Amino acid sequence: MSEKILDIKDLSIRYVTEEETVLAVNGISFSLDKGESIGLVGETGAGKTTTALGIMGLVPDPPGEITSGTIEFEGENLLEYPEKKMREIRGGKISMIFQDPMTSLNPVMPVGDQIREVVLLHNNVSKAEARSRAEEMLEQVGIPKERYDDYPHQFSGGMKQRVIIAIALACSPELLIADEPTTALDVTIQAQVLQLMKALRTQYQTSMILITHDLGVVAKICDKVAVVYAGQIIESGTLKDIYTNKQHPYTIGLFNSLPDIEHETSELKVIKGLVPDPSNLPKGCKFNPRCPYCTPECCENEVEMTALSDTHSVRCIHVGEFDREA
Amino acid sequence: MLKFIIKRLLWIIPVLFGVAIIVFTILYFSPGDPALQALGDNASPEAIEAFNKDMGLDGTYFDRLVRLVTGLCKGDLGKSYKTRTPVINELVTKFKVTLRISAYAIILGIILGIFFGIISALYQNSIWDTLSTGVALFGISMPMFWQGLMLILLFSVILNWLPPSGYGTWQQMIMPVVALGVNSSATIMRTTRSSMLEVMRQDYIRTAKAKGQKFSTIVIRHALHNAMIPIITVIGLQLSALLAGSIVTEVIFSISGVGRYLVDSMTARDYAAVQGCVILIAFVSAILNLIVDIIYTFIDPRMKTMYESAGVKLNPKKLAKAAEVSNG
Question: With CB atoms 3.0 to 4.6 Å apart as the test, which of A313, B11, B51, B61 could cross-link to A307 if both were Cys?
Answer without folding.
Answer: A313
